[in-house]
Amino acid sequence: MTEPLRIAIAGLGTVGAGVIRLIETNGDLIARRAGRRIEIVAVSARDRSRDRGVDLSRYQWVDDTAALVTTGDADVVVELIGGSDGPALTLARSALAAGKGFVTANKAMIAHHGLELAEAAEARGVALKFEAAVAGGVPVIKGLREGAAANELSQVYGILNGTCNFILSKMEAEGRDFAGVLAEAQALGFAEADPSFDIDGVDAAHKLSILASVAFGTRPAFDEVAITGIRHVLAADIAEAAALGYRIRLVGMAEAGPRGQFQRVHPHLVPLDHPLAHVTGSLNAVVAEGNFVGRLFFQGRGAGDGPTASAVVADLIDIARGEYGVPYAMPAADLTAPSPEAPGERRGRAYVRLTVADKVGVLAEIAAAMRDAGVSIESLIQRGANPGGDVLVAIVTHEGPERCVAQALDKLGGSPSVIGQPMWMHVL
Fold first, then answer.
1. Other C-beta atoms within 10 Å of 232: how many?
2. Helices of type H across 245-394
3. Shortest CA distance to 353 belongs to which of 226, 227, 277, 241?
4. Which of 16, 110, 353, 377 is the most exposed place for a label (fewest CB within 10 A)?
5. Mapping DSSP to helix (H, G, I), strand (E, B) and coil, where does residue 284 land?
6. Measured distance CA(250)–CA(237) in Å, rounded
């Protein structure tokens, strides 16, 4: 075998410790598959005294994360700190400028600065790898960039956040409302103390913007992603969806076509005959549609030390073999600026849930608002009055332009009969 691939690791949280554990446990197998050993030469984190369940004594400890670039003669720097800017971005820039390979699980940084980093990596002829940034251990980046490289991809979409999928699955299975299930997810470690990035869809949007860039050959465009999370989904919505033959999932959807590129993270009603309807718990799943390969479906654990460490080390094995190419599916200079599609002209069916006062004429008012906006109603269900005197109205529309539903909801939003914010979900 040739000389080992020497790596330095920044960040020793759950994933960082998992990478060390994986390399130590499967080191011989990894060496046989990579053609040489992968050797950890230096590590860095904020707290040296913390017990991480791995023996760090054999590795050089570096207090200043930025110094990893010049410590231990590392060939590759592995960044597992997190955050779109700050120390992670500084380390990425300095590692690539120094001609070091760079592997990261940092979806926020790649979503915001991926183009810049790709240009820097290509200019120095070194690797920039980020398989672990999307869907944990599911090899979706590699699958799209390499396995589907000969195809024109028109769609890439899926369940990209395990926390949201765990919450929705639990609500579905137990008939519970959002707040109680979120608290349980936090207690079990599936959700952060501040879960906003997850439940408001930002985490999924970071991942979607990366997938869209790889799939369509466009520059990452996180700012173009329309984002709605799940914090306003009720148990009643899930029950109504089930009665109609659907399950509710937070879906990241990206499409490219003659009208431009479209990116959205939004709760969807997913038909029971679609594979995404059967992705439960904290699993992630991604669907891609290619013009020759047809539908591709990727599924697996989207977070945790094992799956994410697996993706990080898979990237390191590629680098050890000398098989890494350009970071995206084509050189950064060839990535085009996406032309955003106006969402209002998109056509589809919608689920709309309104909480309204229990009084005569409310249903007529809703029907009139829909009629005036050009929305055709497929079904309308009114549930009995709650203790507060309000009722739930659930509507499923026929296919039509999204702008029409938006206009109807704008009109109803000013009605004294409508209580709170309407919930609008798309039907996949």
1. 16
2. 305-321, 362-373
3. 241
4. 377
5. strand
6. 13
User: Which helix (H) or strand (E) segment is 269 a member of?
Assistant: strand 260-271
The DSSP 8-state label assigned to residue 84 in this structure reads S
Contacts 24+ apart (CB under 8 A), 412-419: 412/354, 412/365, 412/366, 412/369, 415/365, 415/369, 416/357, 417/356, 417/357, 417/359, 417/361, 417/362, 417/365, 418/354, 418/355, 418/356, 419/355, 419/356, 419/357, 419/390
Q: How far is CA 285 from CA 18, 144, 255, in A?
A: 22, 14, 17
Written as six digits, the tokens of 255 are 């499409």
Tokens coding 206: 């970071």
Q: Which of 57, 58, 99, 52 is nearest to 80 (CA)?
A: 52
Residue 18 CA to residue 313 CA, distance in Å, equals 10
What distance in Å separates the CA atoms of residue 416 and residue 184, rounded to the nearest whole number?
35
- Chain-centroid distance of CA 159 in Å reads 7
List, in sequence order, every beta strand (DSSP E) within 132-234: 153-159, 226-227
Tokens 């980020």 -> residue: 130
- Edge-to-edge strand list for the sheet holding 76-79: 60-61, 38-44, 5-10, 76-79, 101-104, 128-129
Does 207 participate in catalysis according to the annotation? yes
Single out the catalytic residue among 129, 142, 207, 411. 207
Q: How many CA atoms lie within 13 A of 91 on its CB side?
A: 31
pLDDT tens per residue, the chain (428 residues)? 589 999 999 999 989 999 999 999 999 999 999 999 999 999 999 888 788 889 888 999 999 999 999 887 899 999 999 999 999 999 999 999 999 999 999 999 999 999 999 999 999 999 999 999 999 889 999 999 999 999 999 999 999 999 999 999 999 999 999 999 999 988 887 788 899 999 999 999 999 999 999 999 999 999 999 999 999 999 999 999 999 899 999 999 999 988 889 999 999 999 999 999 999 998 999 999 999 999 999 999 988 888 999 999 999 999 999 999 999 989 999 999 988 887 778 899 999 999 998 888 888 999 999 999 999 999 888 876 665 678 889 999 999 999 999 999 999 988 888 888 889 999 99
Reading the block at residue 258, the tokens are 């003659």
Spatial separation of the C-alpha atoms in residues 249 and 169, rounded to whole Å: 8
Is the pTM above the cut of 0.85?
A: yes
Of 310, 332, 320, which is closest to residue 131 (Cα–Cα)?
Answer: 310
